Amino acid sequence: MQVFKNKLLLASPLIAMLVLFIFVLTLYPSATMKPVLLPIAIVNLDEGAALPDGTAINMGDQLVEQMKQAPGMAAEGEASPVKWVPLESVEIAREGMDNRDYYGALIIAADFSAKQASLRSPAPQQPEIEVLVNQGMNATAANMVAQMVSGMVGKLNATISAGLLQELEASGVTLKPSQAAIVASPIVAQIVNVNEIGANAARGNAPISLFQPIWMASIAGAAIGTLVVGKAAASASSRRSKLAARLIQAGVGVVLALLSGFLVTWLANGFLDLGVPNMADMGLFISFSILAFFLMISAILSWTGIRGIVLFVLLLFFGAPLLALPAEFMNGFYRDWIHSWLPMRFMVDGLRELFFFGNGFEWNESTAALFWISAGSLILLLLSALKPQKVSSGAELATSASS
């Protein structure tokens, strides 16, 4: 049968397996996520205390060491899931969280040792620590930080409680019910969310939710522009005309970006109810992001042709799962060679700052990165006007010579 001579049909099993392999690779980061060296600040304000026998103690220092060496933090030979960063004050810790340097902070109260010492007295008081969770930085990391710190505090409580009960039993002290409750769980951990995600931001995933429509709009606009302008440039008789066509393409991109950016913002706030904090700033930033992506995709397509669009479709599938994860949750290959090169991560980071950190449309790391993507892409797009035009047939050469 002739159908069996078709090379595409014969290659279809290999193509199907290749597609399957590519899509499984996109799921790998989410399926194997594991925190490594997650930066969490620790502020020890404990002023220490003196025991009845005159011994000076600082239980805050001991707690810091216990937290660093908490059992179960990491298996032998593996990196610790937490990187504790000692800081001098709560203000510095909060500033660091506002700058997205830390996923959380553990604050040891100034009277921690004094209350710890009172646990052996007839009027025990529970020592307190405060756990600040940087919720807006990443919803996945925020939940894990809260669970992780709560688990460590629970283990420390069990260790301290066992020691206290052993001491009290040896001394023959009888505990009142109120004392027994405190001795059973001596440390109080209060968890406070910082840069909260709110109730209407898709549980903190609003920036990732908006990525797909923004990216697809950029691809669609760039593809149409490339097809239309590519034909105009091909028929142009001079490089000046080709350059003018590319400038018009960039101008159309500006209009497309502004219209699409404010439309997405309006839909996000009114239709999706994502609780946009500032419509103007959000609209401008999304427009700026779409323009950067439009120019980048247009620049690549101007050199590769429309077939280059496959690259950006693959970026969509590979990029979306990574954007939802903190870099500390990825293995080295995905973190260093894929996530660090993703242009859309700057858009997601900028949206996080707008949604959860109270920032506006301003010059920062995200907008600076998008600006340089736009500038470099515009230069590459304009340079494509200098690309020599291929002559498709001898007939065209003859026609050109006769004219």
Topology:
Blueprint: H1 7-31, E1 38-44, E2 49-50, E3 56-57, H2 59-68, E4 82-87, H3 90-98, E5 104-108, H4 112-118, E6 128-134, H5 139-171, H6 177-184, E7 188-194, H7 206-235, H8 239-271, H9 279-304, H10 309-323, H11 332-338, H12 344-356, H13 365-383, H14 394-402
Parallel strand pairs: 1-4, 1-5, 6-7
Antiparallel strand pairs: 2-3, 5-6
Structure, explained:
The protein has 403 residues and is of the alpha/beta class. 61% of the residues lie in helices and 9% in strands. The protein contains 14 helices and seven strands. It has helices at 7-31, 59-68, 90-98, 112-118, 139-171, 177-184, 206-235, 239-271, 279-304, 309-323, 332-338, 344-356, 365-383, 394-402, and strands at residues 38-44, 49-50, 56-57, 82-87, 104-108, 128-134, 188-194. A five-stranded mixed sheet has the order 4-1-5-6-7, sandwiched between helices. A two-stranded antiparallel sheet has the order 2-3. Helix 7 (206-235) runs antiparallel to helix 10 and helix 12 (344-356) runs antiparallel to helix 13 (365-383). Residues 392-403 have low confidence and may be disordered.
